[in-house]
Every structure is written in C-alpha cells, then in structure tokens.
Amino acid sequence: MSSFEDVFGTSPDGSWRAPGRVNLIGEHTDYNDGVVLPIALPNQIVVTASRRTDGRVAVASDGHDRVVEFALDELAPRSVSDWAAYPAGAAWVLREAGYPIGGANLRFASDLPSGAGLSSSAALLCATAIALLGLAGQEVDPAEVARLAQRAENQYVGAPVGLMDQTASMCCTAGHALAFDIRSGALDQIPFDPEADGLRLLVVDVKAPHRHADGEYAARRKSCEHAAAALGVPALRSVDYAELDAALARLDDDVDRRRVRHVVTEIKRTEDAIALMRAGRLRDVGPLFTASHVSLRDDFEVTVPELDVAVDAALAAGALGARMTGGGFGGCIIALVEAPAADNVLSAIEKAFAEHGFTAPSSLAATPSAGASRIS
C-alpha cells in the first residue's frame, strides 16, 4: 500500500473521516418526505489531504490503480466519471454554493464495503466535502454539508437519492440512532445501545451488490411521485395512515397502490419504533423490522432471493426481527437478536446460503458510531 507521500510527493495537511450507515427502519421513505432511523457505522472512508495552489484536484484510492486529476474551474455535471465522480461532485457543489475551496491532493482509504447498501457513496462525498472545506479553513454546519452532498449525488453524479444517507454520515452520534424527519428537517438523537439490553444488531452483507444505476431505484421514486400527484398531495408523507384504504381506493394503478401502501405503513412503523425505543422497549421493535421486510418484498418489490433467504434464516434461528436495509436489489440485512444467539443466527444464514448455492455472506459490527469529523 503506497503512502500519501509516495503518491503525491508531499506531506499531508490533515485527515478527515465520514462513516457509512445502516438504516434501522424507514426504507424508501426519505424521498417521500417521511421519517428514517439510521445509525452511523464504525466502518468509514478516510481522506488524507494536502493543499495545492494550481486550482487542480488529484484523487487516489487504495482500491484504484491510477491518480485522477481535474481542474476546479472546468468541473461540470458528469465531467468526471467512475469513482472519481464523487470527489469531483463534492468539489463542484461546494464551488457552486460559493465556498472558496482550492486545489488539493486527496487520498482515500476505506473499510466500508462498496455495493453493500451501507452508503459508501454518501460517505465518499461527505469525506471529500469536509476535507476540502477543512483545507480552506471553512466551518460548515454538518446538516448543510449533508444537503450539499445530496445535491452533488443528484445533480453531478446523476443518482436520484434522498437525504438520509448523507445526513446520517454527517449528523449521527455514538450510542444513538438518528430520528430524521425529512419534511420538517428535525433531527433527534434516540438512545440506542443493544448491548446494554443484552441484544446485538447484526448486519449481514448478502454479497449481491445493490444497483441503483439499473433504473429500479428511479422507477420506484417515479411511481411514488406519480401516486402523490394522483392523490393531490405534495408527497406521500401527507397521506394519513388512518385514511390509507380510502387513498388506495382512489388509485387506478395497482403498482402505485402497492408503492403507496409500503411508504405509508413504513412511516407508521418507523414512528412506532421510535416510540418503543424511547420507552426502553427495544425488543418490541423486532416485529416491526420483520413487517418492514415483508412490505419491501411484497409491496415495494426491492428484495432479491439472497435478502429473503437471509431474513427467513435469521427468523427461523430465533432473531427477534430481521429486514433488508438500504435501497434494495442486494446489499445487507439487519437482524435484532439476543446476544447469546448471535453466532447461531449467523451460522443459520451461512448454512441457508450454502444450501441455495449463494456466495457466502459476511457480517459487520453494528455499533452506533459518530458522524463525520476531522482526525488530524
């Protein structure tokens, strides 16, 4: 592994980090003005950086062989491709917003698996943004950095993502889940310490990389927007849970009805989970996880066989609840389990995967961790 000095021939001026996230519940609700409940993971992207005076940015990564370089004043949406589009997008959006960032050498290292639905793209954008701002001596509110990172992913990279991932990466705190009300913008830190309750939250990567670029994510979002327009509301958050059946009866398209049913019931499940966690009833959140997965499987249709097999195996082995997490079409599941049963649950998932001929899964520690920060 080459050092920063080996790659750029100079010493760094500092290092910054941004974590990935796992969403406890509230899937595909963020772009519907709903409520989400993520935690930041200990897995993160670290960027080591030095200033340049020529108005250019050079980026390098452990996972890629070559250095990519671009001029700040020549950036335009999609002018840089592949993985370097993310740091380029962060630089572009900061300049568009008027922040006086300068050239930089940026070297990225990560222990966050890409394609696992743990928001490596948001972490990459956020890490880049705070590094460029830090080099320029700029202090910016974390929630604003999250909004800028989302804009970069939407407008520069071209991915129609919501605001949850970036906000989790920037604003989570250790030992808490982040209740994020998208419509109001309110952020609330909810104590979340499974180990104190004798529980563990397992994150299992099913090794079926999720793909938003194939149009499925965009199709779900378009369907939600179409249904909201048909119901005469600005977003599906405005559909009251108590009036869901009446709202569904007004829709002609069965696909739209199923999408709406998922979003409205998922928002209700997320609100119920928050209330249970506030009351110290974490075990009772498990069934909400499972109901969320069923809804994502049947109404939103974003699961794949690996996700369903992993959830079924976890539940059969005694998990209190399990669900896919992230955008879907691959990625990870989470399972809430009694601590003594954790190894048995993981073994059951591995056995089920072997029986189905799937690639062996892997697991991550799901310790609620702190959001983005400067390291040195």
TrEMBL record:
Full protein name: Galactokinase
Superkingdom of origin: Bacteria
Protein keywords: ATP-binding, Carbohydrate metabolism, Galactose metabolism, Kinase, Nucleotide-binding, Transferase
Enzyme Commission designation: 2.7.1.6
InterPro entries, alphabetized: Galactokinase, Galactokinase_CS, GalKase_N, GHMP_kinase_C_dom, GHMP_kinase_C_sf, GHMP_kinase_N_dom, GHMP_knse_ATP-bd_CS, Mevalonate/galactokinase
Family: Belongs to the GHMP kinase family. GalK subfamily.
UniProt keyword Transferase present: yes
Pfam family membership, one: GalKase_gal_bdg
SUPFAM superfamilies reported for this sequence: GHMP Kinase, C-terminal domain (SSF55060), Ribosomal protein S5 domain 2-like (SSF54211)
Gene: galK
